[in-house]
Specification:
The structure is a single chain. This protein has three helices and five strands. The chain is α+β, with helices and mostly antiparallel strands. The protein has a single domain (2-128), classed as Thiol Ester Dehydrase, Chain A (Roll). It has a five-stranded antiparallel beta sheet. The longest helix has 16 residues, at 23-38.
């Protein structure tokens, strides 16, 4: 499981100092980027050399407890399923031991023309080995 740490900034909040709901999607996007980077995957090279990009196909999200201005957050990312052209990740946003946000995110591998693409076999194997 990958861990990404961040802090809630003023710009992330509403008038009450609570994280605006759409910003949780930004937090998990950043965490996914860092997760892929730790695997040694250069997404720019994947796009330029293999013609493959990732796009979010589906997000199932539960907003459980609010995070507030200046909170320190940890976003966890763990693959739950890998197929030929899809990857499903379980992502959580936590403040200490408190679960703020829980999401299941399905990513699709696409070619430049927007059609589905198969994940390279080595990448698929690397991700499959992490599925819990």
């Amino acid at each position: 499981m990958h861990r990404f740490e961040t802090r809630v900034y003023y710009e992330d909040t509403d008038l009450a100092g609570i994280v605006y709901y759409a910003n949780y999607l930004r937090y998990i996007e950043r965490a996914r980027t860092e997760f892929v980077r730790t695997l040694g995957i250069d997404q720019t090279a994947l796009r330029d050399e293999a013609g493959i990009v990732f796009a979010v196909r589906r997000v199932e999200a539960d907003y459980l407890t609010p995070a507030c201005f200046d909170d320190e957050l940890v976003i966890t990312t763990a693959p739950t399923a890998v197929s030929g052209a899809r990857l499903t990740l379980h992502q959580q946003v936590l403040r200490g031991e408190v679960l703020n946000f829980d999401a299941l995110v399905t990513l699709a591998a696409l070619r430049r023309d927007g059609r589905p693409a198969r994940l390279p076999a080595d990448l698929r194997a690397q991700l499959t080995a992490l599925v819990r």
